[in-house]
Amino acid sequence: MNYDEMMNLGNVNFGDMPPQPFLLGLLSAFDNRYQAAADAFFKEITWKQFFSVICINLCKEPPTLNELSDVMGSSHQNVKQILLKLEKKGFVSTFADEKDKRKQRIYVTEKCRNFLEKNDNNGQQSQYIIGRIFDGIDEKSLMTTIQTIVKMERNLSEL
Questions:
Q1: Which of 7, 53, 64, 85 has its CA 20 to 30 A from that of 72?
Q2: What is the pLDDT of residues 40-49, one digit of tens each?
C-alpha cells in the first residue's frame, strides 16, 4: 500500500513502513486532530473534559478517581487535573463514599447535566459532525475497526 498517496501528504515520506506502526501513528494523529476539532466545537469545556464526563456517566455508580482513570485509560495525575478544572467550572463535585469514607466519588452537577442536554449526541450539530467523520464507512468496516482496536487494547494491557 502506498501510504504517501493514500494520505495525500506531499511533505512526508512513509517509505516501506509496515502497517502496524503506520496505524499507530495514524491513530495518534487522528486523536490530535479530533481533539482540536472537538475543542473548537465545545466552547465551555475541552474534549478531554467532555470525555471524562462521558466516562463518569458510563460508570454504574459515581466512580472514584482510580476507577475513572481506568475507564479513561489515563494516569491518575492527568485525570485529577481534568477533574480539578471541571470542578472549578462547576461541572463535577466529589463526595465521600457512604461505605468507605476514605474514597471520594465523582458526581456530575446539575450544570453539567444541563450542558449535556444542550450538547448531547442526539443534537443535530454533533450528529452532523459524527456523520461527516464516518461518511462512506460501512458498518462492516466499522465493526472490523472496533474489533481490531479492542484486540490491540487487550494486547496493550498484557505488556
A1: 7
A2: 887 889 989 9
Mean pLDDT in residue range 50-63: 93
Give every CB contact of residue 75 below 8 A, 6+ residues apart in sequence. 69
pLDDT tier, 125 (very low <50, low <70, confident <90, very high otherwise): low
Please enumerate, as own/partner, the contacts of 36-41 that have beta carbons within 8 Å and a separation of 24 or more.
37/129, 41/125, 41/126, 41/129
The amino acid at 48:
K
Instruction: For cell 446539575, name the residue.
Output: 110
Q: With beta carbons less than 8 A apart as the criterion, state whether 65 and 79 touch.
A: yes
SS3 call for 93 = strand
Which DSSP letter does residue 62 get? P
Q: Residue 29 CB: number of other CB atoms within 10 A?
A: 11
Query: φ and ψ at 12, to 5 degrees?
Result: -125, 140
Q: Cell numbers at residue 2, please? A: 502506498
Domains of the chain: 41-120 (1.10.10.10)
Question: What is the reported pTM?
Answer: 0.79
Which residues, 6+ apart, have CB-to-CB distance to 118 below 8 Å? none
Cβ neighbours of residue 146 closer than 8 Å, sequence gap 6 or more: none
Nearest-angstrom CA–CA distance, 66 and 70: 6
